[in-house]
Every structure is written in structure tokens, then in C-alpha cells.
Amino acid sequence: MSNLQKEDFSKWYLQTIQKADLMDYSPVRGCIIFKPDGYELWEHIQEDFNKFLRSEDIRNVYFPMLIPKHFLEKEEEHVEGFAPELPWLTRVGDEELEEPYALRPTSETLIGDAFSNWINSYRDLPLEINQWANVFRWEKKTMPFLRTSEFLWQEGHTAHETEENARARTMSALEAYADLIENTLAIPVYRGQKTPSERFAGAVDTYSVEAMMRDGKAVQAGTSHYLGNNFAQAFDIKFLNRNNEHEHVYTTSWGISTRLIGSLIMVHGDEKGLVMPPKVAPTQVILIPVGPWQKNPAILDKLKELQATLRAKGLRVRIDETDNSPGYKFNEWELKGAPLRIEFGPRDLENNQVVVKMRDLDDKETVALDDLEAYITEAMDVMQKRLYESAAARYKENEHYDIDTLDQLKEHIAKSKEEGEVPGFVLIGWDGTEETEAKIKEETGFTTRNIPFNPPVEKEVDIVSGKPAKHTVWIARAY
Amino acid sequence: MSNLQKEDFSKWYLQTIQKADLMDYSPVRGCIIFKPDGYELWEHIQEDFNKFLRSEDIRNVYFPMLIPKHFLEKEEEHVEGFAPELPWLTRVGDEELEEPYALRPTSETLIGDAFSNWINSYRDLPLEINQWANVFRWEKKTMPFLRTSEFLWQEGHTAHETEENARARTMSALEAYADLIENTLAIPVYRGQKTPSERFAGAVDTYSVEAMMRDGKAVQAGTSHYLGNNFAQAFDIKFLNRNNEHEHVYTTSWGISTRLIGSLIMVHGDEKGLVMPPKVAPTQVILIPVGPWQKNPAILDKLKELQATLRAKGLRVRIDETDNSPGYKFNEWELKGAPLRIEFGPRDLENNQVVVKMRDLDDKETVALDDLEAYITEAMDVMQKRLYESAAARYKENEHYDIDTLDQLKEHIAKSKEEGEVPGFVLIGWDGTEETEAKIKEETGFTTRNIPFNPPVEKEVDIVSGKPAKHTVWIARAY
């Protein structure tokens, strides 16, 4: 990590995303402007997840953004969970509305109501839909991409005949998230179950995939909820089952959001700026003319020809033909995180070759123009895997299994600080009580991330109470 | 047209879109639920228009949905135009906000403010961006897809060095709309300029493409605005020009919305239901097993094989393997407007053939399985053109050039009603005064649609005042 990354990770993050032109601040409290490169990252995430949805025949829909007040109040835990951060539409033109509308924080309520109209018999099940939409949660502390008052997300909503089917969908959605985040964003994730205190408001069980940022803090990267009959009861979603009896459906919901963009930056970025995984990079290949290229039009001509060839292959390729110096351009495109830089000057023209520099490697390579297409495909593929492996290795370094008491945890945190290391993820034993969670949070700022499906070791004793552990849990500081 | 289409076109429309499962009503005033087939139409429109944007290097962004009150007030005409239908966010949780936020009706103001930060010199120009977003206009009368309190749209915003460049973009965006609507949606459009009274609030000039529905009424299908320096002055968007002087930029904005979905239905639909142009149909090919197919598994197997082959070619293909009768299924898929129906039974299996029925033709054809792929590609292509030609022919029948006075117009309307015909589009002479527009509207409900770039004839005399006409204008009743 660079000095600034080590000394003040938040500052590094905020500087980098602005300098790299991913976003800008806006005059709206806690809301950002997604600039073209920032928004394009979201578009690639959408394309990728839409493939999963299509493969499962889960179709996209669009529901109204406004939720009547009495709808939100139907599921008690749900409204309690969201109430403090709900923005309210109370007036149109000069007229006060009789009943205010909330700007949606999530859509279980409106969709539950629709499901109750659309579902009659087991033949209508499963009913599975997805929505790409903007949502609002007016949180006190905001952070670009990671926590904003308005954000973009996808919310899947499904209804099933049986608990078993609903639980299977809950898990397959979680696995689809893990797949997208690991393979497309090159970010390893921790799969597991949330503790009851961290559950979605209204859920029976919440599962998450969690990622570790370079500063050792966690980001909850995606969640999938088994909602049992809770919303089915609140919205009277019944079906005639195979025994000709009326029964409540079992529902699920699951979401990922534009906070994935923040995670991407915080996992891969380095002292020079962003490092974009090739699969989602807005500019995968940047072509930079070098030497006295303005005097020799054949150089730019050749680059344009190359750009056209590569674009025809589906690659995202740009040429930087500004008047800036090559050195300036190299820095600029390293800041933006373009995976592959191609330098091309008079000598390269003569020798029918280019010079290639990968964003995450130090050395340059000379490649014959005839071999370039194959080289690029291979190099991007290898870089995508390298970024994943590099993050996975960092995860391993920052995981701690040998902390058994709160004092040890505090020592670990103090020592990390002293040595300029990150405290990372700590695996603890937990007796299942909220008291333990509260105590850890109060004394260290760490929170439970999830109960991993496959913990690297099983912890025997609760870190606070010393009682026998019911679960082995990841804890960390979190965004 | 069917009887219901003729007798009560609105009723036909509302019944058809619900029965065909494109939408449902919602508990939110004037807002609809876009069901999968309805939303997918929008997705195909998005894919298509994104191609235009990419070809012009106009990139997608996302701005906050909320607009601070004082921002909206900076452009006087703009706020006046939108004020009565603006929904206001005034409260978060239990706290009243110091300054309310409007739910965006359009984003010139927030984007203008950002442009003033992003633009410094002519080197930053043109600056061209696009946003796909939800917008709000709380209109008194609503109609599914065509006019809803919340709708989905695309808004392009550009800033230029010169009036000439800005006007060129205004026109090229309009032409891109015409291209999409004519070629992808198979809906012919009338290109022209809006009269000042119908201009976008804050624009110097507004241009539109207008479409004619089966009932002869108009839908404004897309608009493109030349905004001159109006927003540049209101938001202080200045640049250092090539003479080293500070100057205001010239801006444009342009939009199409989910009302295109309504137009699609009202232009192509017939007594049996929707008729989907092949390019955007959610189901392009519906495969229906016929005869005693449940007893002969080879039939369904063959259809599944066929589905896989056609899907691999990029076609959207479904099999209807429900227990309903073939006749029921035929009606169902005609209602949904699937362009191509394939029937397949025991005899077809034996003869290695299928029976094909196009949605808009009466006859069936028998096609050898070996020729089917090529047949489908060709048939869809021909149907796409046929729908366009058929709409264009209907337009011609319902255009009227020979009406010179208000009395003649009233007679024409009365006669149309008597004969069960639609009054359609009427080309009139206009002296350029608002008085004429107001009088026409008051007496007939017709409004000016646009001043066509290439009128079929030039009208010499104003229809109301009898004074020399300054313009030849299309008028019609409009949604």
C-alpha cells in the first residue's frame, strides 16, 4: 500500500474516486453523481447479473417508487427497521397529500401486495421477479458509493410453494452474488449467515457475502433473505395448494447495489490509483502514441486501425491523442486503472510491434502486432485471475483465528495500529447472545459480519462470556 | 378495426394491456406496475438507443433524483412550467427538512449545475451525457404507459461551443428518435418543430416526432430541445473560447419515455390483441404442441430441441406446454401479440415439418424443419416492414390537407363521427398567433402537433383568422 493508503485510507479513497473521474459530489445531501466511468461499472454488473436472471427465467419488472404509508406499516418489524431513515413525499404543487408516500427503501410491501393479487394456486408458483431501481435510505453518515442517501440496486423477489423451495432460492441467489463478485469483480467473499441482530427487517434468516477492503474493514457486498411467511401474512398472499387448501406462500428477497463499485476500488486500488478488473473496466485497453507521433501521421493511423480491430472483437479500447506528454498520459491512465496500456511510436511502427504494460505489473513487454489480439485476450484473462489471487492472499494475511478473549482482541487491535497493520477479520466463538455482540461493538467497534458456512476453524468459547460457543463468527470493522 | 376498437378505443386499450399482462394498476396514484412483458419492451428500446449513444460517444451517467427547491427556481420559465405537478419531499423520519426537494420532472437544473463545474475551456466541449431514470409529473389525468405520475425515460444533455453545433445535435437526436421509432417499433413519425406555446419550459426551440394512433389521435413520441444560452445563463455555465474569452455554452436536451410502449400498442394492436413488431417482441416465436402430444413425448422433445437451436441464434422463443387446448393457446398468444406461432403435432413430426402462422396474416404455411431457421429470419424481417407499411398506409388515409376554415374542420369532425371514421391529422395554415391555437383547441379539442419539416402541401391561409399563413402545421387530438 502507498503511504496515503496506509496513513489515511478514507482520504486516499475519496481523492482517488474523484481524480479518476468516477463520481462527483452533488448539492443533494448524501447523494453523488455517477460520472460515465462510475456508471459504466454498474452497467457491466447489470449485464452480468441479467445473465443469471435470464438463465433462471427470473424476469425484470418495474414497480412504483412511492409506497403509501399504510403499506409500510403492515409488517411491523419492517417499518420499525426503516422508519428513521425514510424520506416522505407530503405535498404535490401546493397541495398537501391526505396520505404521505415514502420514497422506497426496498419494495417488499408493494410487491407483496401485487403478489397477493397475482397468486391464486400452486400453478402460479414459483413467482420470481427482479427490479433494477433507485432506493432511498437517509443515513446519518454517508460515503460515496458505499453509503449514499439514494443508491441504485437490484432487488429480487420470489414466492414459493414450500419453505424448502424458498430456502433453495435464497441460497442460489447468494451463490449467484458470490459468483459475480468473485469472478467478474475479482473480489473474494465470505459466505455466511447474519446474526439475528443484523438481519433484514422482516426476515426469518439473512445471508450475506462479505468482502475485505485493503484497510481490513468489511463491506457487506450482497444479502439474501428468507422471509418465511412474514410478508405473506402481512399482505395476505395465499395460494390453493396441491391438497386444495389455502396456504400462505414462502417468500425471499435479495439485493446487490452500487456499493459494489466502492468495494471494487477499495479492494484493488493502489498508490497509483484505481486498478480495474478487465471484465468490468470501462477502458480495457488504452492506446498511447509516443515519440514524435504528431509529425508522423502513420502512427495515429495505425492506432486507429488497431482500435477498430480490437473493438470489433468486443474490447473497450480508447486512444489518448491529447497533447499531453506520454508520461502524463501514463499516470492518468494508471490513475483510471485501465488494465492494459499499449505504447506505440516510430520505432514500433518500423518493427511492426507495440510495447505493452499491464496496470498491476512493473515490467513492459514488446509484442509483435500480429500476435497482439491473442496476447491481449490472454493477458486480460490472466490479470483478472491475478487480481483475485492477490486479494485472496491479502485476505489470508489479515484473517485471525487465535483470538479467544476480548482483551486479546483489544491487544490485537492496538498492536495492529502500532505496527501500521490492519486489524482485519477475526474469527470468534459466540454464545448466540446480543450481549456479546453489543460488548464487542462498544469496546472495539467490531461487529459480527456473518456465521461462515465453512469456517477455517471451529471456535469453542464465547469471546466475551467465556461460555461454550454456539457459533463461529467473523467479526470486523465495517463500512 | 374491431368493434370495440372502433366503439371505445380507450376501453379496448385498457382491457388489452391488462389481459395481455403488460401492466397492472398500483395503489400509488397514477402509477402502474410494469409487468415482465411490458418492462421488456422498454429494455429493447434501451438496447437500441444505447447503440446510438455509443456510436456518438455519448456516455450514460446517473444524477440524484432529488432537486433542491432553489435550483428549480433558477430558470424562471422552467419552474413555472413544472410547478403545479411537482411532488415534494419535505420530511425525513420525523424531521422537517429546511429546504424541500422536488422529485425530478427532468434534470436540466442539476445537470446544468454540474456542467458549470465540469466545463472550463472549449477543450471540454462538446460535453454530452445521457441518463436513464425515473421521473415524476403529477398530472391530473393519467393513462397507463401514455401518461403516468412516475415514468421511465432517457434524457440526453449536451453542451457546445457554438449555436450551430448545439442545433446540429438537437436535430441528430431527433433523427435518432425517428430512426428508432420507425425502424425498431415500426411506427412512422411526423418530424417537425413545436409551436412556441407547446415548447419545453426553458427551451428556445422544441422539435418533436409525432405518431398517429389507430383512433387518429396523436402521441408526441419524442422531443428534442435547443436550449440556447437559457440554462447556461441560469447556471453560469461558461467556457474559455478559442479567442481566450469567457462565453456561455449552448445546450440541448432530448428525451423519449415509456409512453412509446403505449404508442406501440395503439398503433399496431387489433381486435385480437397486441401485435408486436418482431424486433421488440418479448416472445418472437411461440411453439405450440398440437394433437395428442402428451401421449407422444417425441413431440415436446423436438420442440425443446428447436427452442434451443433458435435461442442459440438469439431469438426469443417460448414453448406453451400448459394443459390448455390448442385453440385457447392460439388466442392467448394472439392476445400477447407474438409475431410467429409454430404448431407442431404427430403428423408434423412424421413429415419433418411445422405449421407457421404469422400474427398479422390469416393464412398458415407448412414449412420443412430444415428450412425453418431461414424462414423465420425472413418472415420476421418481412413482418417488421409490413407493420410499418400498414401503419403508413393508415396514416395516409387519415391525413387531411383540404381544410381551410374552422367551420370546415368542425364539419370534418362531425362527419367523421357520423361515419365511424377517425378525424385524424389535419394540415392547416397558421398565422403564428396563440389566438388561433386557442380557438382551435376551444372549439374542436385539436391542438397543434408540429410544423413539419417537409409538409405534403403548403397552406396559404390561417384557418381561424383568414390572414396569410406563416406556417403549415399539423393539428390533431392528442394523448
Automatic annotation (TrEMBL), chains A, B:
Gene3D superfamilies: Anticodon-binding domain (3.40.50.800), Bira Bifunctional Protein, Domain 2 (3.30.930.10), C-terminal domain of ProRS (3.30.110.30). Pfam families: HGTP_anticodon (PF03129), ProRS-C_1 (PF09180), tRNA-synt_2b (PF00587). Its EC number is 6.1.1.15. It comes from the Bacteria. It is found in: Cytoplasm. Residues 36-277 form the Aminoacyl-transfer RNA synthetases class-II family profile domain. PROSITE patterns: AA_TRNA_LIGASE_II (PS50862). Keywords: Aminoacyl-tRNA synthetase, ATP-binding, Cytoplasm, Ligase, Nucleotide-binding, Protein biosynthesis. It is an enzyme of class 6 (ligase). One of its GO terms (molecular function) is proline-tRNA ligase activity. It catalyses: tRNA(Pro) + L-proline + ATP = L-prolyl-tRNA(Pro) + AMP + diphosphate. Belongs to the class-II aminoacyl-tRNA synthetase family. ProS type 3 subfamily. PANTHER family: BIFUNCTIONAL GLUTAMATE_PROLINE--TRNA LIGASE, PROLYL-TRNA SYNTHETASE. NCBIfam families: proS_fam_I. Consists of three domains: the N-terminal catalytic domain, the anticodon-binding domain and the C-terminal extension. Catalyzes the attachment of proline to tRNA(Pro) in a two-step reaction: proline is first activated by ATP to form Pro-AMP and then transferred to the acceptor end of tRNA(Pro). Homodimer. This is Proline--tRNA ligase. It comes from Candidatus Enterococcus moelleringii. The gene is proS.
